[in-house]
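Here's what a typical entry looks like (Galactose-1-phosphate uridylyltransferase):
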Amino acid sequence: MNTPEVLGAGVVKRATVLADGRDLVYYDDPGTTLGSDRAVDARALDPRPETATMRLDVLTGDWITIAAARQNRVMLPSADADPLAPQSPTNPSEVPSRYDVAVFENRSPSFGPALADERGTAPAADDAPRGLADLDELGLGRTRTSVGRCEVVCFSPEHSGSFGTQTVTRARTVIEAWADRTAALSSLPGIEQVFPFENRGEAIGVTLPHPHGQIYAYPYVTPRTRRVLDAIEQTGPDLFDRILAFERSSSRVILEGEHWTAFVPFAARWPLEVHLMPHRHVPDFTALDETERDELAPLYLRLLRGVDALYDSPTPYIAAWHQAPVRVGRHAVRLHLQLTSPRRAADKLKFLAGSEAAMWAWTAEIPPETSAARLREAVESVADPRSEGHE
């Protein structure tokens, strides 16, 4: 294990490797009750799979990853077979030791390394992208190795829960991990954008109930971000400043702090859609200062708990943290959360049918102002996470 490193807020980082050479990083809470020792991963694992392949959709310019190895992922295991729980004599999971927060390379990734590692455990890409200009070129039958990285972020050693069920201290540790991993992944060869996210609920397609998220590091600028860059080019580099001012002056604000504002966007697509944006322009988590990270932890928790207070059962959602690309548009694309849910009533979901799925032409059944009023009331009904008293 590498020498421990102290990060912001007193979080301690401990980096090591799994039995097949994949990276594993522990992030210890400040004041953790865990000791400094971590068990060695002694499993006998199969070699790491060959990196997946990308194929170009010449009609849209989108690159589609073909990752057949992901077909065999674990599906809703019981607590005694949870692959994200700490290892036990009967559960040879992915994390050898008890932990606060743990991050490791996905065993069945959509994106893999560009170069073989020094340990000889990671396969080298045989046809890596040759930069953004190469990926922008249209042509029939174009393929490239799906270079990048997929990591799993375990928010807790417990078998069930989500980001919103964590304490303020734990949420702050995860935020520190997001920033640290964003910096590390952005420095890897061939990486153009880094994306932390959380899928929550079976209706979203979640296969593990364990509280966790993921981080994808892409070899290209993602299609949504390309559309954002086009909008900035057409309207001016201060677009996010103008959006934030416009939304803060509306009736769609849900929650507001000194450094962050949560709002239902003017043209929300989903029955439940909330954006959370910093007041200062920052391209990604690495650029947030300590006060912004400190405020984000309880504010984000309260927002998520408000989402769950809408109904008698937890709400499925995708919590997508959009960050600026590594090299382009960093002065203009602002870090922000886009939280979406297909839940349009207690027992109803919105499905993407012909117009949305085929033509990308959306119809929203719930006016954003109506959604904002309901969500604001729900957020106001939950306690401030800072009052929990078990940090």
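Residues 168-186 form the longest helix (19 residues).

More examples are in the samples folder.
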